[in-house]
Amino acid sequence: MQLKDAITTWVSYIKRPAKRKLINYSAQLRGKKGIEIGGPSALFAVKGYFPVYLFAAQIDGANFSTNTIWEGQIQEGNNFHYYNKTGYQFIREATDLQGIADNSYDFVLSCHCLEHVANPLKALYEWKRVLKPGGQLVLVLPDKRHTFDINRPYTTLEHLQQDYKNNVGEDDTTHFDEIIRLHVMDEKEGTREELASQIQQNIRYRRAHHHVFSLELMKQMLEVCGFTTLHQQDGAPFHLITVAQKN
């Protein structure tokens, strides 16, 4: 860790009381090895709510494709660049981290990724599989009250459980009509017709937010999947942040 970044983190700890618990949790991962599903993410960087990039010994990455609308072109290999470090980049579905052994990582990170997954419980069970006993999951999801999902209803745990029972895949289109109809458009996004086109090609773009989460739903689904919730809070401008531990 560079001295200037240590100072930045310390100043943030003093001036931003809302970040203190999260900075403490991130510091507990000093010298540990983790994997981030999606990313890299600003929330885990020096000035983020959970600056684990500073402390971890190594973080690998997993992304669904070699070409995404967020990361652009990426390749499998030692190409996951975060902070001033590099980890291994896997090209894997969030629900199927094939080739990664059980109990491989001390922690799993996921920031604004799970809402793009059609079967969240299947993903959480897979992330738990690669976590060591007692390992931590840091899960960040969008707060619909401050996003384009504001008009959509919250998803229920029962719905997620039914999707898991039915082994719903990433080609699922169940929520597409609702997404297109209730999405609050921003002029930077283009037209609703352009949105509809990308949503209908979601298997390629993964733009759709299949489900809408609250902190309570996050806690419920984590408990179902075998995690204990350690800490929850919201964070500006639109984050719902949960730190959990594998039972």
TrEMBL record:
Q: Name one GO biological process term.
A: methylation
Please verify whether the record's keywords include Methyltransferase.
yes
CDD domains to which the protein is assigned, alphabetical: AdoMet_MTases (cd02440)
Ranges that cross the membrane:
none
| Molecular-function annotations in GO | S-adenosylmethionine-dependent methyltransferase activity
Task: Report if keyword Mitochondrion is assigned.
Answer: no
Keywords, ordered alphabetically: Methyltransferase, Transferase
> Where is each Methyltransferase type domain found?
88-139
- Supply the InterPro entries for this chain: Methyltransf_11, SAM-dependent_MTases_sf
**Name the record gives this protein:** Methyltransferase domain-containing protein
**What is the native source organism of this protein?**
Chitinophaga rupis
Q: What is the lineage of its organism?
A: Bacteria, Pseudomonadati, Bacteroidota, Chitinophagia, Chitinophagales
